[in-house]
Automatic annotation (TrEMBL):
Annotated keywords: Magnesium, Metal-binding, Methyltransferase, S-adenosyl-L-methionine, Transferase
Protein name (record): Uncharacterized protein
Single Gene Ontology MF annotation: metal ion binding
Record Pfam families: Methyltransf_7
Keyword Glycoprotein recorded: no
Organism: Brassica carinata
Gene3D superfamilies: Methyltransferase, alpha-helical capping domain (1.10.1200.270), Vaccinia Virus protein VP39 (3.40.50.150)
Alphabetical GO biological process terms: methylation
């Protein structure tokens, strides 16, 4: 398998940071809040809400979305407890939140931004969520928000110009059936490992809440707005190589450890893994629609999510130039983007078997 740098967000809270440019991801948490509350009310056993209640966020980044995700969960658990028992949760339940991300994540920014007045004790858990990062039975509800689309590595052949699996132009346009199968196989293996690890770490009857972007069955990534934007990144890198700014070999050997799965694929992977029951699979209407942003904001938010990974391959200067070109391309093709096929924003609720 090709070695790849770890996927991280741009840390800190500066003008390029994920911290400042993750409102699109946050909007899904808010839009799905009611459905999440319903799921916690209906599916979380009341017996689990006593004494110490532990929430874990996997792929938490440096904030601030993780604080919204975990607070929404705590609110829902407290609501259920109050309604069912008539008692004040503040007097009887202590919450702890475990914040997990890769070791290279900017945990300092995260810890400095912990909300004042929070009603939980925080702790960092460094390490890859594809494997175990916690002891058995460590938490009651886990959340993964916008981090359920990663692979642990890029499948063999994808970055090799001589292979039939070579994925030219980074991701979407060159995403033929063979490339798709290689990514799907890798994604299935990794996601099953992730689910195995969480199943061990969760208490019996615990829940996993997955928020993220997927595809409706039969829709290709390249037909969606997000896929088009990914293609702009690939095209911009190609432009930079034409201008002699970066090496074409580097562009040709660049690919991302991401796979945006279709609903049916997600269902099948979870079913084959067998450790969880799907209690809800909600197609959430995002308040900003599929493509809300103006080209400038789009380029900056995309840079916050992809920039650190691209910098690791091409250097920070080339990365900044690439995103200037992404903005130009997004401006030129804005109407195509607006007419793209819809993607899908999901909330998936899993209950440990
Ligand atoms: C797009 S951010 C999402 C952040 C946050 N959950 C949100 O909703 O805004 C994806 C996060 O997943 C983390 N991540 C990617 N691969 C990971 C892995 N193997 N183990 C732990 N975290 C990982 C990245 O470092 C990044 O912080």
């Amino acid at each position: 398998m090709a070695t790849i740098p770890q996927w991280i967000m741009i840390g800190g809270d500066g003008p390029e940071s994920y911290n400042q440019h993750s409102s699109y991801q946050r909007a899904l948490l808010e839009a799905a809040k009611e459905k999440m509350n319903d799921a916690i009310s209906a599916k979380l056993s009341l017996e689990l809400i006593s004494g110490r209640f532990i929430v874990a966020d996997f792929g938490c980044a440096s904030g601030p979305n993780t604080f919204v995700a975990v607070q929404n969960i705590i609110d829902a658990v407290e609501y259920k407890y109050r309604k069912a028992t008539g008692q004040n949760p503040a007097e009887n339940i202590e919450f702890q939140v475990l914040f997990n991300d890769s070791t290279t994540n900017d945990f300092n920014t995260l810890f400095q931004a912990l909300p004042a007045g929070r009603r939980y004790y925080g702790a960092g858990v460094p390490g890859s969520f594809f494997g175990r990062v916690l002891p058995k039975h460590s938490f009651h509800i886990g959340v993964i928000s916008h981090a359920f689309h990663f692979t642990s590595e890029i499948p063999k052949g994808i970055t090799d110009r001589d292979s039939p699996l070579w994925n030219r132009d980074m991701h979407c346009t060159g995403f033929n059936e063979a490339v798709k199968k290689a990514y799907l196989d890798q994604y299935s293996t990794d996601t099953k490992n992730l689910l195995d690890a969480r199943a061990e770490e969760l208490v019996p009857g615990g829940l996993m809440l997955l928020f993220g972007s997927g595809l409706r069955d039969g829709v290709k990534m390249s037909e969606t707005a997000k896929g088009m934007v990914l293609d702009f990144i690939g095209a911009s890198l190609n432009d930079l190589s034409q201008q002699g700014v970066i090496d074409q070999d580097k562009v040709d050997s660049f690919s991302t450890p991401l796979y945006i799965a279709e609903e049916g694929e997600l269902r099948q992977i979870i079913k084959e893994n067998g450790k969880f029951t799907i209690e809800a699979f909600e197609d959430i209407i995002h308040p900003n629609g599929e493509f809300p942003l103006d080209p400038k904001i789009l380029a900056v938010s995309c840079k916050a999510a992809f920039g650190a990974f691209i910098s690791a391959h091409f250097g920070a200067d080339a990365m900044r130039k690439a995103f200037e070109l992404v903005e130009v391309k997004a401006r030129e093709e804005f109407s195509r983007i607006q007419n793209a096929k819809p993607g899908m924003q999901y909330l998936i609720v899993l209950r440990k078997n």
